[in-house]
Amino acid sequence: MAEELAQEAFVRLWRRWRWLRDPEAAPAYLHRTVVNLGNSAIRRRVLERRVAAFRGGQSVDAGPEADMELQQAIGALSPGKRACVVLRYLVGMTEAQTAEALGITPGTVKSQTHKALRQLRQQLAEPAAAEHTRAAEGHG
Question: Are 36 and 15 in contact (CB under 8 A)?
Fold first, then answer.
């Protein structure tokens, strides 16, 4: 999947090359295109999964609320952390590919990804922990 996204990003850059004012902006254009294509692919997969579940009469594991919470949590990450998580886990790039795409070292990718995942776990666990506490206290 990552190779297909990269190929599509290069094709789109090639198509727009004559309108690109600054050739030095090409890497940033490629990066943004890959991220956008990855996000579109994720949305498409989620929709396909929901349609398949609906047609098969199966229940979907995570509802729209869970998807929205995850999107908000990812959106709350710093741009560097968000890029690492999207490229590593949603696009499927390796650490080396992510490092190359972002112009950083593989060690930075590891560090940023680790911090981002810890932050996501904390953000996504807080609502569940609060709901569990309310239920235990007899308020939920």
Answer: no
C-alpha 91/C-alpha 5 separation (Å) is: 8
- Report the predicted TM-score, pTM, of the whole model to 2 decimal places: 0.50
Question: Quick check: 127 and 69 in contact, CB under 8 A?
Answer: yes
DSSP state of 86: I
Q: Which CATH number fits the domain that encloses residue 90?
A: 1.10.10.10
Compute and round to an integer the Cα radius of gyration of the chain.
19
In this predicted structure, which of 13-17, 83-87, 94-98, 130-134 has the lowest mean pLDDT? 130-134
Q: Which domain holds residue 125?
A: 2-136
Q: 22 in the Ramachandran plot: left (φ > 0), alpha (ψ -120 to 50) or beta?
A: beta
Rounded CA-CA distance 23/110 in Å is: 30
Q: How far apart are CA 26 and CA 19, in angstroms?
A: 11
1 secondary structure, DSSP code = -
pLDDT per position as a tens digit, 113-128: 999 988 888 887 765 5
The label of the residue with tokens 């569990």 reads 132
Give the chain's domain count: 1
